[in-house]
Amino acid sequence: MAASTRVVVVGAGIFGVTAALELRVRGHAVSLLDPGPLPHALAASTDVSKVVRLEYGAGNEYMELAERALAGWHRWNRDLGEELYHETGILHLSRSPMKPGGFEHESFRLLEKRGHSPERLDARALGERFPAWRGGPFVDGFFHAKGGWVESGKVVSRLVRLAKERGVSLHEGVAFDRLLEKGSRVTGAIAKDGSRIEGDGVVVAAGAWTPHLLPFLSPYLRTRGMPVFHLRPRASEVFSPARFPVFTADIARTGYYGFPLHPELSIVKVA
């Protein structure tokens, strides 16, 4: 991309706002569009918490990217002057003994291969260290001290402010309608009110709305939702981060994961 290119970014969730920031760092003029308000209540990145973990099975490249991302979260904590990433560690649980080919086993072995120090836990060790899991169906797993969760809605809000401070032109309250095209090139965006935001290229970071905003992608992309529960436990001390870190519960088979007690809301989020 040539220097001083004008780029239109559609969507100011975590992908859109970070794309806008990086493009500004690289010297481009950036217009960032979102129907607002920001952070948008229905954006996937607008939530009280999101998991940050290195473990994704046997994918070496994926873990390498996650290691770089983890370093970035520590850097943001420092540069933004707020602890928005909380390194509680990650507890990965399995209902059967870990074995080659399984998500937990392959994650554990890859962590060791890349120089990390995960701690293997059987049912007894699990119950002693993390009482909320005592007597449950999980017989194997491991704890990894690197990883945790982020206050995701706050992160987006803070990064939107940073984008404005760094010269990104924010168009909040502007709803995208369609791409602006000249011949075979996409050169901007047309808003629902008919206004045009022109540029030399467009980045669409619309998340779940992508196949609806760009109908030609609908055969390839499907919008899906997952249930999320916010629970308020009576014995809150059992769910403190030290005793109840971020967890995945046989996640490759169940999709089940959750978080420790939220420091402000006093809830345990499970999804």
Detail the topology: elements first, then pairings.
Blueprint lengths: L5 E5 L3 H12 L3 E6 L15 E3 L7 H21 L4 E2 L3 E5 L8 H11 L5 E2 L2 H7 L10 E5 L3 E3 L1 H14 L3 E4 L3 E7 L2 E7 L4 E3 L2 E4 L5 H4 L15 E3 L14 E4 L1 H4 L1 E3 L9 E3 L1
Parallel strand pairs: 1-2, 1-13, 2-9, 5-15
Antiparallel strand pairs: 3-8, 4-8, 5-7, 6-7, 10-11, 11-12, 14-17, 15-16
Helix pairs in contact: 1-5
Brief sketch in words of this structure:
This protein is of the alpha/beta class. The protein is built from seven helices and 17 strands.
Molecular structure report:
By secondary structure, the protein is of the alpha/beta class. Helices cover 27% and strands 25% of the residues. It has a 5-stranded mixed sheet. A 4-stranded parallel sheet has the order 9-2-1-13, with helices on one face. The chain has a 3-stranded antiparallel sheet with strand order 3-8-4, with helices on one face. The two termini are 40 Å apart. The model has no long low-confidence stretch (mean pLDDT 95).
